[in-house]
């Protein structure tokens, strides 16, 4: 009996402690809210800025202040500034999804504001900064390209347009690199048709990237392996016309020469069409 009473007393004590803890947390939260509401929107915003600038400070503190500005003073000019700073802070913390959400909210609420270009740029960066390895899924790369294009086309005179253009070119090159990686994989394993499809994509869709010369050379290799000499010679001709100083052209020239062939446009393949369009200027 005594044991049962002791257990009951312990359970009651535990409940008392739990209630007290919850009450303390609630009181602390209320006190924190009251402490924040004692500050003006400008004071909160500048405190957030100071927390970002202070190397010993925490970005989470800055984010809390910017969020408080928006919550406590939602229709003020400081709330608008605080929202763009939320996007910046989330991006700085590498919380890219949160950064995109904040940047998009800014664009939804203030599409014509002077900082809309920066919000659009931050949104694009939140995709671009996740494009770090050729082997990763390319969905983010496509999204980065789309978002960067928005900055370039909608805010061409902004200070972010040039940076967006440079990043667009790098992301575009990244996609070509992915096709080249897969194409080499297939080529090495003798899956020539699959390899050709990848190299063709680079030549047709990514011809302004740094990978086009190699793609043409790999096409020469793959077509020769299949015995399709017209296509191999035409790929060599395009390579020689556009990239004659490239070591890839010399490699292709040597491969063709070993089989008694030369780089020249022959046949009616897709490569012949590219040759006519890009070199002879025949578009019809």
Automatic annotation (TrEMBL):
Stretches of the chain forming a coiled coil according to its record: none
Q: What is this protein called?
A: Outer membrane protein assembly factor BamD
- Look up and give the organism this protein is from: Cypionkella aquatica
State the Gene3D superfamilies in the record: Tetratricopeptide repeat domain
Family membership, please give it.
Answer: Belongs to the BamD family.
The keyword Signal appears for this protein: yes
Its domain of life?
A: Bacteria
Q: Which CDD domains match?
A: BamD (cd15830)
